[in-house]
Amino acid sequence: MSNRPAGHATRSTIRPNSETGQGPGVRTFLRTADGIAVDSVYDPGPVVYETGPADGPADGPADVVFVVAHGFTGDVDRPHVRRVARALAAYGAVVTFSFRGHGASGGRSTVGDREVLDLTAAVEWARGFGHARVVSVGFSMGGSVVLRHAALNPGTVDAVVSVSSPARWYYRGTAPMRRLHWLVTRPSGRLVGRYGFRTRIHHRDWDPVPLSPVEAAARLAPVPLLVVHGDSDGYFPLDHPRMLADAAGEAGELWLEPGMGHAENAAGDELLARIGRWARARTGRGTD
């Protein structure tokens, strides 16, 4: 394992940017603090023009960068993750990555625990491109990770968006969550995860149990938090988003979306555009 600091790029390749056409993107493996290689993609988003010292406008990086944390069994190349990246790229640069145990990233999934280290590496990498503001946007499992990351690493992000997140751990109140627990806790389920969903799941239980999402939400102020949840979410009922927003107090804002299901697949382009505008407004960068 490497002893390099979190966020160190172990391999970097420049590739044409297929997301926006604004310029080259970067794909690399980042090294987390515990030595996991995390497959990551940077999209520069729209070009921003600023006044140069003497010779007129000079182009620079977008002022906001979104760091997108996908849901369980997702990865950076999944169509729904790429669609989210394309939508948010209209409002800033975008970093996407595969959590440990997902896609081409190393390690095994801990289903939201040590994934905070993956997000930490991605946020540090995003900061290094020179953007003025960083906004973390997480879906489902990723929605819980962005909450815990911001609570455990104060000052590293300027706003947080948590979509379809649980508020508390070990929830089994819906059929999809009972299936997910079987996938994670049973050897046969982990085999299905590996070969059916390209997700390698760690066999160990949490020890200690990580800070819960609702406890994390209570620690975020003054960082703005947007909680987004569908009223047709089959995984987590509406008490989960309400608990998160209530815990955040004045720093929290709750959007309950009519007819929306769960996570990235249910987040339409119009909703993603509203999230982009919200993030720019709450970080002081306007809405254009």
Automatic annotation (TrEMBL):
GO molecular function, one term: carboxylic ester hydrolase activity
Superkingdom of source: Bacteria
UniProt keyword terms in alphabetical order: Hydrolase
Residue ranges of domain AB hydrolase-1 in the record: 65-165
Region (Disordered): 1-27
Polar residues bias: start-end ranges: 10-21
Keyword flag Hydrolase: yes
Family: Belongs to the AB hydrolase superfamily. FUS2 hydrolase family.
PANTHER family registered for this protein in UniProt: DIENELACTONE HYDROLASE DOMAIN-CONTAINING PROTEIN-RELATED, POLYKETIDE TRANSFERASE AF380
Protein name according to UniProt: Alpha/beta fold hydrolase
Protein species of origin: Streptomyces bauhiniae
